[in-house]
Amino acid sequence: DIVMTQSPDSLAVSLGERATIDCKSSHSVLYSSDNKNYLAWYQQKPGQSPKLLIYWASTRESGVPDRFSGSGSGTDFTLTISSLQAEDAAVYYCQQYYSTPSTFGGGTKVEIK
Amino acid sequence: EVQLVESGGGLVQPGGSLRLSCAASGFTFSSYWMHWARQAPGKGLVWVSRINGDGSSTSYADPVKGRFTISRDNAKNTLYLQMNSLRAEDTAVYFCARRSGEGPWDYWGQGTLVTVSS
Asked: For residue B36, what is the nearest residue in chain A, using CA coordinates?
């Protein structure tokens, strides 16, 4: 199974400041036949289901604010929130959908400082 | 509008059984692979099982293999998870989710809580 490791476990950021979350996979999730990284980012607020933010490592889902961006390739990925808003307080998960079983990182809790 | 609505969760004793349902609407259900994932209280997301569009291919996480069965009724636009021989460690919120082709899980249900306790 591909192990997804997120860091940090939690971070507190002031409103308007940048938040950066890292995700590392134990195996490359870059599929050579289509040159796509099979990596997604989700946001989950308390009592809610996960919401898709980013897929193919850097493609923003429709309706997701452009302050959210994803980068990286192969085994190392980053989710950046460029200017943190109050509504961004949540837990963020990376997920690889390159192989079965699909696996998630342990989550990063983003709080407002 | 795409909607996934889970039901069937509840309190069950260890060794008992439960069947979860996920009612889908707003899309051509038979065209999509579907997944179940779970989240234990205060913990992260864990994949449980998946099924292809016509129900001919399934896969399970090791902890549930031989105890859980995923199935679908495309005529009723409904996904199922039959859970047998339940254990305390199966206690979690169970989510169904749609996979977008070869892409990510783009829609999730609201979840249904399963509690295994005597």
From this structure: A102
A22-45 pLDDT, tens digit each: 999 999 999 999 999 999 999 999
Question: B53 near B33, Cβ under 8 Å?
Answer: yes
**Spatial CA neighbour of B117 closest among B10, B41, B26:** B10
A92 shares contact with chain B (CB less than 8 Å)? no
Handedness of CA B58, B62, B64, B65 (dihedral sign): positive
User: For residues B17 and B108, what is the distance between their CA atoms, to the nearest angstrom?
Assistant: 24
Task: Nearest by CB to B47, from A52, A103, A107: name it.
Answer: A103
Taking CB atoms and an 8 Å cutoff, what residues of chain B touch A104? 44-47
Cα B30–A103–B104 angle (5° rounding)? 40
- Quick: pLDDT tens for B64-81: 999 999 999 999 999 999
